Amino acid sequence: GENVEQHPSTLSVQEGDSAVIKCTYSDSASNYFPWYKQELGKRPQLIIDIRSNVGEKKDQRIAVTLNKTAKHFSLHITETQPEDSAVYFCAASRDTDKLIFGTGTRLQVFP
Amino acid sequence: GAVVSQHPSWVICKSGTSVKIECRSLDFQATTMFWYRQFPKQSLMLMATSNEGSKATYEQGVEKDKFLINHASLTLSTLTVTSAHPEDSSFYICSAREYRSYGYTFGSGTRLTVV
Hints:
heterodimer, A: mainly beta, six-stranded mixed sheet, five-stranded antiparallel sheet, globular, B: mainly beta, seven-stranded mixed sheet, four-stranded antiparallel sheet, 11 strands, about 0% helix, about 55% strand
C-alpha cells in the first residue's frame, strides 16, 4: 500500500523567512497530493493541493511542487508569520481513494 | 461549503464499556467515509474505509470486531469502540467524500479518554 514519508519532523524559522517541507510517496499511481495544517485538537485544514497533471501550484505565500518521476512533492511557505506555526501534514491518494498522511512537521515561526 | 458534523467532541468512558461516535454530512451525500485515529504528536492513521450500504474495509492491524463501523445512509456513519481500554484513548476523526469528488471533508474530531 501507499507509504508517505515527510521531512523534517520539526522546523524552526525566523519570522519573514521561508519554510520548506518535503514528502515522498511510494505508490506511483497516486495522483492527488494535498497539504493540511492542523492546530492542536482541531481538524486538519486543507491549505493547498495539487494533482499529478501539474508540476507546481501557488496560492499567495504558499506553493507546492510535484516531481512525479522522483515521487516527491514539497510545500513552500514564504514570508512566514507567527500564525503559520502549526503541524503540517502532506498526504497522497490514488484517484478518490483513501488519503494516506505523512508523519507531520511541526513548524515554529519565531517573531 | 461541505460540512461534516462529528459528535461527541469529547468523551470519557470506563474501561470495558462501548462508545459510539457519529459523523453526519450536512449538505452533501457522503458516499465514502474514512475513519482515522491520531495519537498525541503523531500523524492521522487510517483505520477503515466505508462505502454507503457496504461493509467497511479495515486497514491492516485494525480489529474489525473492536471498531464497528456502520454507514447505512448517505449522510451518517458511526464508529463504535467496543470494550474500550485505556490504550484506545485517542483522537478519532472522520473524513467524508462525495461520489467522484476530489474533496475530503473532515469532521471536528472526538477525543476519547478511557479510564
